[in-house]
Amino acid sequence: MKRILAQCSKELAQFRRDRLTLALAFILPVMTLFIFGFAIRLEAKNITLIVQDFDHSNLSQSYVERLYATNQFLPVQWSGTDPIRDGIERGLAKAAVIISPEFSRDVKAGKTSVVQVLIDGTDVNNARVIKNSIQAFTNVFIQDQNLLQSSSKILPRIRLWFNPGRQESLYIVPGVFGVILAIYPSLLAALAMSREKEQGTILQIYASSVSAAELLLGKGLAYFIVAIGQTLFVLGLGCTIWQLGFVGDPTPLLIGSVVFLAANIMFGLLIGVRASNRSVAVQGVATVGFLLSLLLSGFIYPLSNIPFPLSLITNLVPARYYIELTRDAFVRGTGWSGVWSAPLLLALLAFLLFNIARKIIRRMQLSG
């Protein structure tokens, strides 16, 4: 135990003396929090829209006015007669709505009036959002204008659960916590371990009586303490700016945070053990840790959308389980009954990464 604490004290002393590492530990996470928290938006808004009204009746004008009043679409000034060529193909608009000259006449006659909607399908997700938005608005417009030909036998009453205000920050920011805490603690640990190899001081450790496990635990403990500070700083700042609060039992998140940080630090030490210098360590953490945490953790894309065999890799991404914990703590609030497996799987990953790194160091000691 004394060797572990001595190794931890040495690492903390080096950390305090290195101003660049201090900046990396606290300034970059804040910048990442602001960039991801404010820049990432999954709900399409301010969609540019062209409307070509050939009817010019009170009903068609009311349809157009209320369409823009949804605050989801922006009118586009365009010149010409073809909305596809003059608007969509030139990139001025993402969609065009064409109202036929017989629009109001067909409605008054009890006939079906067709409104043509042309959507730029370059972005498939955005096209789907536009289609559903215009379709939903048209259904509401028909009901408000009493244009339903017969009363429906089924009337759904829809209520948004957990997030009735549809605040995207409740979904994005807890996910950002997971991405940040997956990257920077592991990056600091990888730099610390690779620095020993780059400067040649790792040979002194090999020649000493310090075991591989003691070396990993000593360095890991030092950067675990730093990671705890990062966690408190990032979560406190994020909750203050975006007005987040616990909606249920916070203990799964608190316990899960400890295990999650341990798993990421072990991952960083593993990268540092394999890297020959600090540049390689940074590239390893950025390539493996950042990309997996960003793309295969459920942060942006649902895990169910990830195809096989990439879906198997998601089971080895610690950020996947921590994002589940943060979104439960700040949005759903189900507590242990809903997320009990996440801390256990994080502990399993931490133990696995520790043993892999320990065996690699042990082989290097023996070969040295």
At a glance:
The chain has 368 residues and is mainly alpha-helical.
Task: Explain how this protein is built.
- The chain is mainly alpha-helical.
- The chain folds into two domains: 2-40 and 168-367, no CATH class; 47-144, abc type-2 transporter like domain (abc type-2 transporter like fold, 3-Layer(aba) Sandwich).
- It is built from 15 helices and four strands.
- It has helices at 2-17, 19-39, 58-68, 83-88, 103-108, 124-144, 169-199, 202-207, 212-241, 251-274, 278-295, 310-313, 318-332, 336-339, 341-367; strands at residues 47-53, 73-75, 95-99, 115-119.
- Strands 2-1-3-4 form a four-stranded mixed sheet.
- Helix 7 runs antiparallel to helix 9.
- The longest helix is centred in the middle third of the chain and has 31 residues, at 169-199.
- The protein is elongated, with a radius of gyration of 28 Å.
- The mean pLDDT is 85.
Features:
single chain, 368 residues, mainly alpha, abc type-2 transporter like fold, 15 helices, elongated
SSE arrangement, N to C: HHEHEHEHEHHHHHHHHHH
Our Rg estimate from Cα atoms comes to 28 Å
Shape: elongated
Largest sheet properties: 4 strands, mixed
| Order of strands across the main sheet | 2-1-3-4
Instruction: Note the beta-strand portion.
Output: 5-15%
Number of helices: 15
Low confidence ranges: none
Q: What is the end-to-end distance?
A: 25 Å
Helix-strand layout with pairing:
Blueprint: H1 2-17, H2 19-39, E1 47-53, H3 58-68, E2 73-75, H4 83-88, E3 95-99, H5 103-108, E4 115-119, H6 124-144, H7 169-199, H8 202-207, H9 212-241, H10 251-274, H11 278-295, H12 310-313, H13 318-332, H14 336-339, H15 341-367
Parallel strand pairs: 1-2, 1-3
Antiparallel strand pairs: 3-4
